[in-house]
Specification:
heterodimer, A: alpha/beta, Rossmann fold, Alpha-Beta Plaits, 2 domains, 11 strands, about 35% helix, B: about 40% helix
Chain lengths: ~220, ~150
């Protein structure tokens, strides 16, 4: 088994270095002669100068069906064509494509390239998670294996704001306490949740996301 | 070739690429009274369109899905994929077919090696390289007979 990296600059260099350090055989294909020279100096990989979407170039790589084929160019259409060739002609199951435009995730899937990575959507998820959700939630207990206790800030836009507890459906979780104006309330069914409240929620770990959605809304 | 594209008055067509070939096709469709949208990333390319062209133009990367949505590609009766880049054309054609479920597609392909890819997905193609080489081969064999 070998690892084939098609195109890309920094990203192919770092990935190539990582795979080499882990003991894999690595072949790298790059269009730019200058960058190939640089790669050849820095890495003990087989470097081939050429267009990795061109069959003539792919033919030189001695591709086997158990190879890992990764397309990393900055153009989604080139990644698509390279992966299609790897899949259709060389029967490589592990043909993985970098996706530059996150909207193309679904397109690639529909065309039949299911193994994809979109750095933009990964970053976006991380950013949204830290800014919208984490801002409102403080985890109080994290060392328990399947239990989660956390504090959620309720504001006006929360779906549960100004609702009575009995009208809120929480799967696998309970509101243990409400912190309001520096005092604590142990809530009952007819207690209203108000903006500014801090809710102490106890839930099963796997229900965390549905609890987020119930109290903060879709993120 | 059993492939037929419906051409009727008031039908809607999308043309990707407004270079020499794309502009000729867009002008022709427009002259015949069809609704046409032409997409090209280079605004200057629209100068290739005739004065009588009545369709719409969109500036943008042709293979962007956002762009295709704006062109209402799902409503198109047929799509012409005529950018000068084979890989771009492959991606556009497959996106139109698999994502937007539009089946009437003709794509230009320069490299004869790419014809197979289009054939596999049942996408009609025009290959200028093959057209020219077939014509030239005829000249050669004609000359040999004399």
């Amino acid at each position: 088994m070998k690892v084939i990296l098609i195109g890309g600059e920094e990203i192919s260099y770092y990935l190539g270095r990582m795979f080499l350090n882990r003991g894999y055989k690595v072949t790298m294909v790059n269009k730019k002669p200058q960058y190939c020279k640089y790669l050849a100096k820095k890495l003990k990989a087989l470097i081939i100068n050429g267009d990795g979407t061109d069959n003539k170039v792919l033919e030189q790589l001695e591709l086997k069906s158990d190879d890992v084929f990764i397309a990393l160019t900055p153009r989604d259409q080139d990644n698509l064509v390279a992966c299609l060739a790897a899949r259709e002609i060389y029967k490589i199951e592990n043909a993985i494509s970098l996706i530059n435009d996150p909207e193309n995730l679904e397109v690639f899937e529909k065309i039949g390239i299911e193994k994809t990575v979109s750095p933009v959507s990964i970053m976006a998820k991380a950013i949204f998670a830290s800014s919208t959700v984490e801002k409102h939630i403080k985890s109080l207990l994290t060392d328990s294996s399947d239990l989660e206790i956390f504090e959620i800030d309720i504001n006006e836009s929360s779906p549960v704001s100004r609702k009575q507890l009995k009208n809120i459906e929480i799967k696998d979780g309970i509101i243990g306490a409400i912190k309001r104006n520096n005092s604590s309330i142990i809530p009952k069914g007819d207690t209203y949740i108000l903006p500014g409240d801090k809710l102490i929620i106890i839930s099963k770990k796997e229900m965390k996301n549905s609890v987020y959605n119930t109290f903060i809304g879709e993120t | 070739m059993d492939f037929k594209i419906p051409f009727k008055k008031s039908f809607y067509y999308v043309v990707f690429g407004c270079g020499r070939l794309g502009s000729i096709i867009a002008n022709e469709l427009s002259a015949k009274g069809h609704s046409v949208v032409v997409i090209d990333r280079d605004e200057a390319s629209f100068e290739n369109l005739s004065f009588d062209f009545t369709g719409f133009t969109l500036i943008g990367e042709a293979n962007e899905i956002e762009q295709m949505r704006e062109a209402k590609i799902d409503k198109a009766h047929a799509v012409f994929v005529l950018t000068p880049d084979d890989n771009t054309n492959i991606m556009i054609a497959l996106t139109v077919k698999k994502y937007f479920n539009v089946n009437n597609i003709i794509a230009r392909v320069y490299n004869p090696k790419n014809i197979k890819t289009f054939a596999k997905y049942k996408i009609e193609i025009v290959c200028p390289t093959m057209l020219a080489s077939n014509r030239l081969k005829k000249f050669i064999s004609k000359g040999e007979k004399q």
